[in-house]
Amino acid sequence: MHERAPHGLDQKGLSWVSIIRLGLVQAALGSIIVLTTSTLNRVMMVELALAAVVPGILVGWHYAVQISRPVWGYKSDQGGTRTRWILAGMAILATGGIAASASPYIIETWFVPGLLAAFMAFTLIGLGVGACGTSLLALLASRTAVHRRPAAATIVWMMMIAGIVVTAIISGTLLDPFSFKRLLAVTAATGAIAFGVTVLAVWGIEHQTAPLSDQTRAPARSFRLSLSEVWADPEARLFTIFVFMSMLAYSTQDLILEPFGGLLFDMTPGETTKLSGMQHGGVLIGMALVGVIGTVLARRKPMILKLFTVWGCLGSALALAALAFAATVAPQWPLAVNIFLLGLANGAFAVAAIGSMMMLAGHRGGSQAGIRMGVWGAAQALSFGLGGFAGTVMLDMARLATGSDAVSFMSVFAFEAGLFVLAALIAMRLKTASTGSAAPLPAIPSPRLEPAE
């Protein structure tokens, strides 16, 4: 189905103002997520004295639910408008966040019903993040001009981090003196504000901006056939493997970095928290560099995102290899500098990968942008869910086998470095994402078409 954009629509893609407005949706996502995956994690472990595995399972489950991302992407491709899926996803996320914040009060009185309520709440959180986030990225991929995609990826991700930081600061102030009722009130207010911001941010954008090709809607076909077509594309399949491999390497150190500083460098909790801040500072600077340099050079050097992706992975591998070596000489090592450089490389590769994802999703005129983003989002969610858990399991197994903290941390960091090297090798083989082209790919032959579901 081919349709010409109605007269009067902006056919040059999203403006910078529109991109920033869509970045506000990412900030709203981050504001709810930080309360449900960070603050609630602490409440369950400290105020309720639950085993750490309980919030760990809940957070892992919300990642597992996000395997549904391809379904949401498919729905937004077929539905003709992505705005309603963004709004629906945010509404589900806000509802899940409020329900999750109510679960500690229930757990305190009725333990099993409270845990079931928390489980259902985190199911909603996973569904909401999947529906809203996938549709948002698909909208950006199909409506953003090629030369603006590096900056667009940087803007939306930095705004998500900003949403997390601002919410953490404000909610941290409002939660004292702490009570379960106060937690519920703060989360409910955050959810309401996040939904309101989302409505204002997306209002009218899709109707005022034309897709960057003539094809505005995916041909009617079943989800299974659409998914098989994406997977049959060698480039999309290779990129899925890259996303899983790189994000697994990215997330495996999440839960062991601060213990590393405490056990081998005798750092206090406050010092290791500052160490985490150094890493996130590096991530922000790495993202900003890719956004600025990538936007300036995108027209003349269409492979710039691929270069940033490859070198970001290799830089991350080197920084992790340095941490592995640091474990053998601790505490005689400039750990803060090492962590900052790791964050810098992580930020560069992550935002370059998102920009490349937007490039690749633009193929077939953007008619499959939703389901493609969904497939890659599912791969990312799966790797994030496995990463933190795998890092802790590997560390515990190594400590049990060797009896040495230094050797154990060294082995985990070396494993992560190896994953990043493999991810870089895969990224070097990617072609479509480096060309900057949004031209449609040749149709993939299929034995038959099925009616849309």
Describe it.
The protein has helices at 16-47, 53-65, 69-79, 83-109, 111-143, 149-174, 180-202, 205-208, 223-232, 234-251, 257-265, 269-297, 304-329, 335-361, 369-402, 405-429, 432-435. It is an all-alpha fold. The chain folds into two domains: 13-209, Growth Hormone, Chain: A, CATH 1.20.1250; 223-439, Up-down Bundle (Growth Hormone, Chain: A). The longest helix has 34 residues, at 369-402. The radius of gyration is 22 Å and the shape is globular. The protein starts with 15 loop residues before the first helix and ends in an 18-residue tail after the last helix. Residues 1-10 and 433-453 have low confidence and may be disordered.
TL;DR of this structure?
By secondary structure, this protein is mainly α.
List key phrases describing it.
453 residues; mainly alpha; Growth Hormone, Chain: A; 2 domains; 17 helices; disordered C terminus
The appropriate CATH architecture of the largest domain is: Up-down Bundle
- Number of helical segments with 4 or more residues: 17
Using only C-alpha atoms, the radius of gyration works out to 22 Å
Query: Residue ranges: pLDDT <50 for 5 or more in a row?
Result: 1-10, 433-453
CATH class label of the largest domain:
Mainly Alpha
Strand content: under 5%
Question: How many distinct domains?
Answer: 2
CATH topology of the largest domain: Growth Hormone, Chain: A
Globular, elongated, flat, extended or rod-shaped: what is the shape? globular
Structural class: mainly alpha
Helix content: over 70%
Mean pLDDT: 83
How many beta-strand elements?
A: 0
